[in-house]
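Worked Example 4.2. Read the sequence first, then its structure tokens.
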Amino acid sequence: MRRPFASSRPWEALGSLSARLLVAFLVPTLLFLTLAGVTVYALARASLEDELGASLSALAAATASQVNGERMLTIEPGDDQGGTRTWRALARLLDGVRTASGVRRIYAVDTAGRVRADSAGSLPVGAEVPELARDRLELSRVFAGKRAASQVLFTGSDGLLYKTGYAPILQDGQVVGAVGVEGSAAYFVPLRRLGRAFAVASAVALLVLALIAVLTARGFARPLGRLMDSALRIGRGDLTTPVPPEPTREIGVLARELEEMRRALEGRDRQLKLMLAGVAHEVRNPLGGIALFSGLLEEDLQAGSHAEAGAHVARIQREVAYLQRIVEDFLAFAREQPLAREPVEAPALVDGACELLSMEAAARGVVLEVEAAPARLEADGSLLTAALVNLVKNAVQASPSGAPVRVTGQAQDGRYTIHVRDQGPGVPEAQRERIFEPFFTTREQGTGLGLPLARKIARAHGGELALTSQPGATTFLLTLPLAPQEPPDSAPPRPRPRGR
């Protein structure tokens, strides 16, 4: 029973292939681009934030170095309204630095966080700066005598992001206040533009990759679809339609192998049909004879003619023996027998096969002449003997009485060739290749499996069986590989006649 393919709808497999290739292209690329974009953006932002914080805290330190801490502490609430001299001097200093540096705001506070001067004028003297509560950790470092910058960006009233740098105001080595400088994080605008451009470029890259994936999937899917159609045809029993070749190297190899498989299946199917037809034909005749002679036997037994009955029994036994021979030949040809390889001496192989046929050759008046040069084969001796017996038997049966059958063996170029020659009428050209087909025979009692079995055994050993024929000179050539590293003996063989 033929096993069906897993899917009888090729487009499902092709769609699956396209989807998998698309996922295989896009998912890793999407993950890589996302991870790379986020990582680069985060690193760039962190680096720019650190750079901005360092610049702002340095500007704050430079400004703090110009502030007289003792005079700053004399500024009291209301001084900004009255415009005292000390307040105006400090406010003028802060505003000049703001204008020169281009920052948003500079202010000076005491250690309690109250404003003593503000370049923006948004907070009166003595008011608490709200942003200081957000930057308590940074201010604790500043009041310990160190510079610091806010860790968190904040959004101003204009919608832009800002950062604050702090530096201590010293008086006689003591921290009496701090200068805060608010600067715009203007780099975030191009950074965001860069992020958007990267996102657009990533989307374009994904689209291009998707197009490449689709085209690649089609490039794979179409030839694979043709291969799948061919496989389905073969699976349904269509062994006559060839598998089309494919230009792609890897898929082309698959197509060639599938075509080889189809040819092998076609040949085996054809051979099986021939074998079945041959078995049916060969079995029909002896079965008819058995039925005929068994009927005659029954009649003779009823009539009491025991002599005739014995003759009929002998005929039935001959037909049964012929049937048994057909079955044995059929099984020997159909069965895949593993080779039991072992060292085999070629002269012993040839002598053994001829010895088995010496009596039959003598009965026909045929002389067996054997010349086998020494050589060693790595082979299954029993199977090769059976093959060689078939060849010699055909030659003996084809030879006229009194004619010789020459069996010679010679090693050359790493191979050993056995020639079986007879002087019979020869094989017509139209039948020379057909004689190796199962059940093809020109003899009345032949099964037509001897020569096909001999060729099958030869090929199983890595050899070949061929035929050359003309009237009066027919030769079977059995070629076999020599055993590895076995130099052939070039000594001339001695002829050994067998039979008469």
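Now turn to a second chain, presented in exactly the same format:
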Amino acid sequence: MFQYAEKSGFGRGLLVVGVLSGTILGASLFAGNASAGECPADQTKADAREPVGVSAVGETDTVIATIDVEKEQGVDGRVLRMRRLEIEPGGVVPWHSHAERPAIIYIISGTVEEYASNCAVPIVHKAGDVTAESKDISHWWKNTGEEPVVLISADLPKS
């Protein structure tokens, strides 16, 4: 489906964005087990975790669609971007902030641990989970399992 969207231009890319958005919304609203792993209430605190200098290892990040929302909707300096990420066993997505880049992540397969700035313990995300990454989040991810993790990320980076 995603390769088809890449080769079919803007209209197909927009269709993929709409279908995925509907799938994510439907999963989060109607399936009780489709919500993301969360930080336990007693482990949530500001600055619970300091930035770490881990490097990207075993991750593949492929942009599958973009929309210039400045041209489309008048949102200055932003693009809507959808990416497919694969994290191999032992792979790492390095520490990063969402202060200026909100995102929604949908875990397609595998299990991955998130080490968030506002949680003293790792947060486990499994296939079917959806998680929103807001301006208050900085974090890094690690695949501690034995199978690759595949996820879709939709975000609004500066162009």
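Notes for the reader: The chain has a mean pLDDT of 82. The two ends are 26 Å apart (CA to CA).
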